[in-house]
Amino acid sequence: MPASNGAYRDGKGTLYEGGTRVVALANWPERIKPGEVTGMVHVVDMYPTLAAIAGAALGKNKPLDGINLWPTLSEGKPSPRKDLVYNVDPLSGAVRKDDWKLVWKAALPSKVELFDLAADPSEATDLSAANADKVHELQDWITTLAGEMAPPLLIMEAVRLTFYGPPVVADPSTLFNLGD
What we know:
Layout: H1 17-20, H2 46-54, H3 70-75, E1 83-88, E2 92-97, E3 100-105, E4 111-116, H4 132-148, H5 153-164, H6 172-175
Antiparallel strand pairs: 1-2, 2-3, 3-4
């Protein structure tokens, strides 16, 4: 049985808050003031934040999804992050803009859910039917992201083997000792 995620829906391996929301701790005496960051933070923010602390330039890197959160950690300023990509792959995706989160499962049976995390952090009420414009906006974002990404190797290999590879048939004489 997975651990309890309290009020958050589901657990690890899912796109819901119970599977993605985690606690983090940063401790640096006299550099980080004690307090709590309640805004959005993502693991991809660690690299630009640590680079900024070290005074390293990021100019020659590929474009980054992460942002420097040092002012948030050291000075208690609000997180500048306003959106978040939970996951995008050929079978599902989830994104968040401000308090709106879209969970989209493209695999059959397909399913789209929209949540207002400020009002419903446990993702109990699907608001997609009443907010078609927001659903389309966030689905367009997921589709754009999917078009920019490299296909996941494991999934693409499974598709190739399933639909394009020759069938593998065992030689019956190797399965049993049929004798002479």
